[in-house]
Amino acid sequence: MLANDVEKKEKKSDYFKDILIAFMVLVISIGCFFTYNPADAPMDLGSDGMNFATYPLGVASFLSFLGLIYLVISIKKYLSSSDQFDFTNQLLQAIKDNKSLYFKRLGTVILLILFSIILGEINFMLVTSVFLFLGFYLYDRRDYIFMIILSLLGGAFSYGLFVYFLKLPI
């Protein structure tokens, strides 16, 4: 009997965790609408379809749509499993149980923002290698030699892909 209550409580906490993550996705995607416009380019599609200015807008729209679907499904699951709706207790429990997960997700978003800001200022391969190294570190990988090798190989592969294969001016 007690084991069933514990499993039920953990499941409610997991559903509430999904609701919090859905809100984070929505905040990030809505923030992209207002903050990311490279070189203040016009947002009209024009005759060429998607370009470097309208592509992030399309990605933010798609991410918002998926975030809304995720939020609705998560709320529906939470309410269907919930006997009593104790919002503050569930919120505090979900934050306490999953603070490492939230820290890693927030850290990833901060790394991506810093990567996009620094990208035009410093060499692409160097920035990509540092980004990969910090990403490995953020997600608790601690064999530094292997991290450095993978980061340098990932940066070189990305540089080769974008510059030589896709012929993008980076």
Give descriptors for this structure.
76% helix; 0% strand; mainly alpha; globular; 170 residues
Overview of this structure, please?
- The protein has helices spanning 2-35, 54-81, 87-97, 99-118, 124-138, 144-165.
- The mean pLDDT is 78.
- It has 6 helices and no strands.
- It has 2 domains: 1-97; 98-170, no CATH class.
- Helix 1 (2-35) runs antiparallel to helix 2 and helix 1 packs across helix 3.
- The protein is mainly alpha-helical and 170 residues long.
Order of helices and strands: HHHHHH
Rounded Rg: 20 Å
Mean pLDDT: 78
Count of individual helical segments: 6
Could you tell me how far the N terminus lies from the C terminus, measured between alpha carbons in angstroms? 61 Å
- The proportion of residues forming helix, as a percent range, comes to over 70%
The oligomerization state is: single chain
